[in-house]
Design brief:
The protein has helices at 13-25, 35-40, 88-98, 103-106, 120-127, 140-152, 166-172, 192-201, 268-277, 287-293, 303-306, and strands at residues 4-5, 42-46, 52-56, 110-114, 132-137, 159-163, 179-183, 206-212, 237-243, 260-266, 280-284, 310-317. With 324 residues, the protein is an alpha/beta fold. It has 2 domains: 4-69, no CATH class; 84-317, Rossmann fold, CATH 3.40.50. A hairpin with a 5-residue loop joins strand 2 and strand 3. It is globular. The relative contact order is 0.11.
Length: 324
């Protein structure tokens, strides 16, 4: 929604600061520490209807009642270095599930970031204490954005970005990682089992998968631990086509035909089934509980999580004998 910014003039400073405090401090559960820094990142705008609203500087992201300033509010370039999933509510909510929930797992570890995009999660992992992050991204322009973001925030080592296909990368060289982040990629491929095989061969003990899944209403209950279920099999994967010229979808690969490539949206049961086969146990982030505690996060760009069409899975390695 377009709005007119009100410049901060010295003679209006006290009045505007009072308005910001009235709008934000009474409605946002912010800690006392850092309030001045937070205020400095906000600006007041007058809406077309004459009402005033608070926005994050340099963006059209409106601060809503109940908001809490999140991790990426400190690093706002990530709101602008990509057009895919870059809303403040979405990035900060996902940060809680992907990074904050796994801070102890990431600290001091070698991390692989599959489809690393503009470097947002590689950056967050390093800030959480990761020893080194390797990002593999098919689109060079996104790697360029990632490098620019890292340089802007003074991060000059502890990371490597590689341009190319993740399957080629993992097959083409010996890779050793402790943690693998597969965020927003698992439903942009049809090669799920192959990917998990390659991940397991890196030696990774933990895998974080954030992916679209089939809707709960379409999933079947796993009634028995039977790896050979025939009828009413719950381990489904919905086949779809991704247009490869869309930056929010899969890149062109060997399966691409006529501008699209085959991908599959897995069921929750399928993810658990494949993870178990490769020697991983599975837990899920409790998104319903998250939205219960943070109802303000129920915004348009979080409908996939709120509607249970996207989930965050945590895979942990158990002893498993590999058949070479």
């Amino acid at each position: 929604m377009p709005f007119r910014q009100i410049p901060l003039r010295k003679r209006h400073l006290r009045r505007i600061c009072a308005a910001v405090i009235a709008i934000t401090m009474e409605q946002l559960p912010l800690p006392v520490a850092g309030q001045f820094e937070i205020l400095a990142s906000l600006e007041i705008a007058e809406m077309p209807d004459g009402c005033k609203a608070v926005f994050r500087k340099g963006s059209s992201q409106r601060v809503l009642p109940g908001d809490v300033m999140g991790f990426f509010d400190q690093y706002e370039r990530f709101y602008m270095s990509s057009t895919v999933g870059a809303g403040a509510h979405r990035l900060n909510s996902r940060y809680e599930a992907i990074i904050a929930r796994n801070a102890a797992v990431l600290k001091g570890k070698r991390v692989l970031d599959i489809a690393s995009h503009d470097g947002r999660w590689a950056f967050a992992a390093l800030k959480a204490g990761a020893l080194h992050v390797t990002g593999v991204e098919a689109r060079q322009e996104l790697i360029d954005n990632a490098l620019s973001n890292f340089a802007h925030y003074g991060i000059h080592d502890g990371f490597t970005f590689c341009q190319g296909d993740i399957f080629d990368h993992l097959r083409g060289q010996k890779c050793d990682f402790d943690v693998v982040m597969c965020l927003g990629f698992f439903y942009h491929t049809i090669r799920h089992a192959e990917l998990l095989d390659l991940i397991e061969r890196t030696g990774a003990k933990w895998v974080i998968i954030d992916t679209m899944v089939t809707h709960l209403s379409e999933e079947r209950t796993v009634s028995a631990d039977n790896p050979r279920i025939g009828r009413q099999n719950p381990y489904g994967i919905h086949l779809m086509l991704d247009p490869v010229d869309n930056p929010a979808m899969a890149c062109s690969d060997s399966l691409a035909r006529n501008g699209s490539t085959l991908v599959g949206i897995p069921s929750r049961a399928a993810i658990r089934f494949m993870a178990k086969h490769f020697g991983y146990t599975v837990e899920e982030f409790d998104w319903p509980a998250y939205f219960e505690k943070a109802p303000v996060a129920r915004v348009k760009d979080m409908l996939d999580y709120d509607g249970r069409q996207r989930e965050t899975f945590y895979l942990a390695r158990v002893f498993h004998e590999r058949q070479s």
